[in-house]
Design brief:
- The structure is a single chain.
- The chain has no helices and 27 strands.
- The protein is mainly β.
- The chain binds magnesium ion.
- The site of magnesium ion (MG) has 8 residues, from strand 17.
Length: about 300
């Protein structure tokens, strides 16, 4: 079992003895934003610096889904199954409609442009939550250097009314995010300011109260070795987070249960497959997957 490191005995129940880490495809510049499209039996993900969205199908391999992608990053599906994407280049969230046309959902807060929306989740009530760090506008590699007019923040956006509000601040680099299965908690990774000597590297946890208001926000778990980037949650509420040495599985209590050891730094990951028991992992330039004995969480 060289692909796993068991830290806590509970983790032994989550992995399958005969399910190794599989390498699905390689040669990308930097994988991001994986999302499972069950109705099309495919995975969509970004080759972000190449400005294109890729598609992987089990027996057909890799093809280009969208190019250019607007240097798209994180993706999620809404309650109607429509794809919601973050765009660095356009500094917006956009939606792919059923007919394939694109709708620009939001690109401003209080009259000023967003920075570079990084990752996104949709709550069961339809509200869209996304992070807006500066990474995507700090260089010409992932969308183009542009001026920031807003501090990094976590936003809540209502696609019905068009209302956008800061859900939480005090971030250097808010990044991946996921709700607990009952949506009483929201986990948000802090990737930190990489230009400082000791960037903040941890996952924060918020309590979600009535009216979608957030409380708390304390440090939930420190990812070592970092970085904390994308994360997702399984049916038991465990958090599966990106890390420099692979994927870390963290219990709802905050303790590290074990690791999936990946040869390259992991950027983002998502559950998918027919039973949602397959974890798709973006490891720098290579796409990996592993079957687990747990399913990804669904809306309550
Ligand atoms: Mg990210």
């Amino acid at each position: 079992m060289n692909d796993f490191e068991i830290v806590d005995r509970r983790f032994a129940h989550y992995i399958l003895e005969n399910a190794p880490l599989e390498e699905l495809a390689g040669g990308f510049r930097w994988i991001e934003g994986p999302v499972w499209m069950g109705d099309a039996n495919c995975l969509l993900f970004q080759d972000l610096p190449r400005d294109r969205t890729m598609r992987w199908i089990e027996d057909a391999g890799i093809s280009v889904y969208r190019s250019p992608s607007g240097y798209a990053n994180g993706q999620a599906r809404d309650r109607q199954g429509r794809l919601i994407s973050c765009s660095h280049r356009e500094r917006c969230l956009f939606r792919t409609e059923w007919d394939g046309s694109l709708t620009r959902l939001v690109d401003r807060h209080e009259g000023k442009p967003l920075n570079a929306p990084n990752d996104v989740v949709v709550k069961s009530n339809g509200s869209i939550w996304f992070t807006d760090p500066l990474y995507g506008i700090q260089n010409d590699y992932e969308g183009g250097r542009q001026l920031s007019e807003q501090p990094p923040a976590l936003y809540r956006f209502d696609p019905q009314s068009g209302h956008i509000a800061i859900a939480a601040g005090d971030f250097d680099g808010p990044n991946g995010l996921a709700f607990s299965p009952d949506e009483t908690r929201l986990y948000v990774s802090e990737t930190g300011d990489q230009t400082t000597d000791a960037p903040r590297q941890y996952i924060r946890v918020f309590d979600v109260a009535a009216g979608d208001r957030l409380f708390g926000g304390e440090v939930f778990h420190k990812i070592e070795p970092g970085y904390a980037d994308g994360l997702c949650v399984d049916e038991d509420g465990n958090i599966w987070s990106s890390a420099a040495d692979g994927v870390h599985c963290i219990a709802p209590g905050g303790e590290l249960l074990g690791k999936i050891l990946v040869p390259h730094r992991v950027s983002n990951l998502t559950f998918g497959g027919f039973a949602r028991n397959r974890l798709f992992i973006g490891g720098s330039h290579t796409l990996y997957a592993v079957f687990l004995n747990r399913r990804g969480a669904t809306w309550p």
